[in-house]
Amino acid sequence: MRSTEPLPLHHSWPLYDLRERLASVTLDDRTARSDAALAERGLGLWHCDLATQKLQWTAGIFDMFGLERDGEISRPRAVALYTPETREPMERLRAYAIRHRRGFTLDVDIDRADGGRCAIRLIGAPVIVGNAVIGLHGVKQVLPKGAAASRELDPRIFNLL
């Protein structure tokens, strides 16, 4: 499994911290609202409807997983592409986020459908309507080999979904 230090990259956090968790990458408005521009920068947005388990991904996430853009992807298929070492912690943090209405951040490894491997920073938060958690949404960011990735992202990118 990927290193869990520093701890802020492998934990849950309160929803009031969402803007702080997503705030330091400087994106101009055009980039923040462009699926293609985000994909070029190794970023993608995701949404999971908890009632149906249906996933919505922007182009960048299809690229990270080595899948054809704009194709249908089931949650079980996507989860199967996480390496065994990162799948279990991801599922545990996801369940905790839903149960306790908290966000989470975790670095994971993906065994891409096209045969490669990709390291990704996964940031997620529950979607709450009334008193119910109805979904999860978030950002995935490619972690470049040997480069320090940004710890936070611009909240404007959530406007795409």
TrEMBL record:
<dbReference type="InterPro" id="IPR035965">
    <property type="entry name" value="PAS-like_dom_sf"/>
</dbReference>
<protein>
    <recommendedName>
        <fullName>PAS domain-containing protein</fullName>
    </recommendedName>
</protein>
